[in-house]
Amino acid sequence: MIKVPGFKGSGVSSGIKKKGKKDLALIFSDTPAKAAGVFTLNVVKAPPVILGMERVKGGHCQAVVVNSGVANAFTGKRGYADAVLTTQYVAKELGIDKDLVIPSSTGLIGGLLPVDKIKKALPRLVSGLREDGFEDAAEAIMTTDAFPKFASTTVNIGRRKGTVAVIGKGAGMIMPNMATMLAYVITDINVGKRALTKSLKHAADNSFNKITVDGDTSTNDTVLMLANGRLGNKTLDATGADYRKFEKAVTETAAEVAEMMVRDGEGATKAVKIVVKGAKTAKDADKVARTLGNSLLVKTAFYGEDPNWGRIVAAAGRAGVKFNPDKLDLYFGDHKVLSSSKQVIDEKKAQKILKQPKFTVTLDLKTGKASSFILASDITFEYLNINAHYRT
Amino acid sequence: MIKVPGFKGSGVSSGIKKKGKKDLALIFSDTPAKAAGVFTLNVVKAPPVILGMERVKGGHCQAVVVNSGVANAFTGKRGYADAVLTTQYVAKELGIDKDLVIPSSTGLIGGLLPVDKIKKALPRLVSGLREDGFEDAAEAIMTTDAFPKFASTTVNIGRRKGTVAVIGKGAGMIMPNMATMLAYVITDINVGKRALTKSLKHAADNSFNKITVDGDTSTNDTVLMLANGRLGNKTLDATGADYRKFEKAVTETAAEVAEMMVRDGEGATKAVKIVVKGAKTAKDADKVARTLGNSLLVKTAFYGEDPNWGRIVAAAGRAGVKFNPDKLDLYFGDHKVLSSSKQVIDEKKAQKILKQPKFTVTLDLKTGKASSFILASDITFEYLNINAHYRT
Predict the structure, then answer these.
(1) Prediction pTM value
(2) Which of B87, B106, B180, B197 is catalytic?
(3) Do A318 and A351 touch, CB atoms closer than 8 A?
(4) ipTM, 2 decimals?
(5) What CATH topology corresponds to B7-263?
C-alpha cells in the first residue's frame, strides 16, 4: 500500500467502462505541488496531453484527474474544450484553481470524452479521497492491464525520511484501439524546480523509456511528477548527495512500475532484459537494443522459448549501427552462446534459461565502451487475441 | 511457364531438406551474361552474399547456384570457403570459369553448408538443365513459401521481342530461423552495363524494397539480374524510349513477384497496399508508409478486419515525420474514413473493404506533393505458429 504525506487518492466508476468498473481517478495534494512532466513524442498528441503540457509549464499542480475507457485522442478542438471543461469541474469540486488541475485520458482513440458522466461522478470521486486511496486510483486508470501498478520507497534527506511513490498503467492496447502508458510520481520531499525536471527526465529515460511491448508509441503517453514539499526539508538542488539519493529513489521506483508494465504487456509471458554493451555510443547501444526488443523474430523466439541466436544477430545487423559481425559475444543469462561470433552454445542450458519468465540477453558488440538496455515482452497468441479478435 | 532464349533452369533434391524436397537450383546462361546485383544492407552479411558482391563486380555471370535449407550465414571464414568451393564444383561440372558462378543460400542461420551433398547432386542438377526448367528452380529455392514464385513479360525492342523473367522466393522465416528474400531477373535483351544497373536498382526500389512481412531484413537478401544479349538488339543505353520500356518491364515483372511474396508471407491472409501521399519528400512518405506497414497494431487490425483508423494515425505520428495532425485524409479503398482529420467513416462500408484479401489504404498528409507506398501482409495466428511453435 502507498502513502505519501499530504497526498490523497481516489478511484470510482463513472460509467465510461462497462460493468461498474472503476474508470475515474484523482490524485490530490493538500497544497499546490511543484510539477514536472514528460509527454509522448508522437506527432499526434491527444488534447489532454496538449493541455497537460501547457499547464505543467506553470510549475505547479494540485490535482491530476485521469479517466480510462476513452483516450480523448484525435478529437480536435472539441476534445481540447472537453479536457478544459473537465478540469474546471474538478477544480470547482475541490475549491482550487483550474490551472492547478492536469487531466489524462486513456482508451479508445477517436471517441469523445463523456464529460457529463465524469461531472456526475466528481462529488463521489472527491469525497472518496483518502491517504490510502492510491490503489483505487491505480485500478481506475487500467485499460487492458491485468493488475494495478504502483510502487514506493523512502529516502533519507538529511534527518528526515521522505517518500517517493509511482502509480502507473501498462503500455498496451485497449479493445479495440491503442491505449497509453501513464505514470504519476508523487513525493512529499521538497524539491527545487531544476532537480524535479532533471530527476524526472533521468527516471523516465531509465524506466518508462526503456520498455517495449509492441513498439508503438501512444498518442497519450504521460509521466507527471508532483512534489508537495510536505517533508519540510531544505529545497533539493539538482546536485549533491541528497539529490543523487532522491534521483536514485525516483528512478528505481519508476523502473519497478515500468517492469510491471512489461510483465503485464498484453498477452506477455516473458519479461526479457536485453543489454547491449561494447557499443561506440550509448545511442548506438540503444538503437540495437530497441531493434532487438521490437523484432517480431526475436519476440516470437522468446515466446517459443527457442534459443534462436541467429535471429538476434540478424536483427542487430539491421539496426543501422556499424559493428564487426565477426566479433560478437552473446549471452543468455550467464550462459555464453557466441564467443567472437563462434558458436559455443549448449542448447540445453540455453533453453533452460529461456524457459524462465524473466531473463537477460546480453549482446557485446566489442567496438566501444557504451551500453544500454531495453525491457521487452514477447509476442504471443494472446496478444493477437486481444488486438485482432476483439471488437466492441 | 517461363522461357527466356539462351537460359536454362534446373532444380533437384540434394538431401539438405527432408522428404526429398527440392533444395538446389541452377540458373544457367548458354553464354556469359552481363550481370548486376542488389544485396542486403544488413551489417551481418552471409558469406554467399559477400562472395556474390565480389563476383558481380566483374560484370559477368553465367550460372547462379542456389540452395535452400541452410543460409550459410554467420559461418565466418569457413562459410566463405564453402561458398567458393561450391562455385568451383559448379564451374567444373559446367565447364566454365568459377568467377562466372554466383552462389545464394537461404535457410537456417549458423548451420554450415553441406558441400558434399551439393557436390554429389551437381551432375543431376546440370544434366537436368532445361529451357522450361525454371519452375523446378523456383520450387527448389522455397523455404516456408507455400508456392513457387515467377513471372515474365515481353518487350518490343526495335522490331525484336525480348523477354524479361523473374524468379523469387518469399520474405519470411524458416523453421526455426530467418530466411531470405531471393530474386533473379533474367533477360535475353542486350543491355549495356549502366542500363542494367539502373534498371535493376529502379525495379528493386519499386518492388522488393517496397514489401514487408515482418520488418526484419535478412542476412542473405539478394536480387541478381542476368542479361545474355541473345536477342541481338543494339545494346540498350540507360536512356531513350526502348530503355524506358525495358525498365518498366523489369519493374512490373519484379513487382508481380514481390506481390506474390507478400501474399505468401508467413501466415498472411491479407496483402495491403499502403499509400502515403501529400508528404514533403518521398523519403518522408516512405518513412510513414514503412511505419504503418510494420506496426503490429496496424497489422493485427488488418488481420481482425477491423477499420481501426486510430491505430493508423497513431502509428503515422510516431514515424519521425512532421505533419499537421488536424489535416489528415484517410481512405480504405475508395471509401473516405477521415476528412481533414474529421471522422466521415461508414463502418459497414469500411469493414466490407477490409474483408477483402487485397485492398489499398491511402493516407494523405497534405503537407507536400511527394508520395510512396509499401505492400504489407498482416500478422496472424499462423505467423506465430510458424515462428514460435516449430523447432527442429
Answers:
(1) 0.84
(2) B180
(3) no
(4) 0.81
(5) L-amino peptidase D-ALA esterase/amidase (3.60.70)
**Residues in chain A, overall count:** 392
Give the residue among A382, A378, A339, A380 at the shortest CA–CA distance from A362: A339
Angle of CA points B242, B246, B250, to nearest 5°:
175
Vertex B296 angle, CA A216 and B202, to 5°: 100
Rounded to whole angstroms, the Cα distance separating B209 from B175 reads 24
For residue A357, cis peptide bond before it (omega within 30 degrees of 0):
no
Question: CB–CB of B217/B179 below 8 Å?
Answer: no
Which class does domain B271-388 fall in? Answer: alpha beta
A377 and A265 Cβ atoms separated by less than 8 Å: yes
Which of A45, A77, A112, A177 to substitute to test the interface with B, most B CBs within 10 Å?
A177
Which three cell numbers, joined as nine digits, stand for B239?
Answer: 536512356
Of residues B110, B380, B387, nearest to A300 (C-beta): B387
Question: Given a cut of 80, is residue B151 above it in pLDDT?
Answer: yes
pLDDT tens by residue, B82-101:
999 999 999 999 999 999 99
CB B379, CB B299: distance < 8 Å: yes
* Interchain pair A74, B325: CB under 8 A: yes
**Cell matching residue B160:** 525484336
- Residues of each domain in chain A carrying CATH 3.10.20.340: 271-388
User: In chain A, which residues fall in CATH 3.60.70.12?
Assistant: 7-263
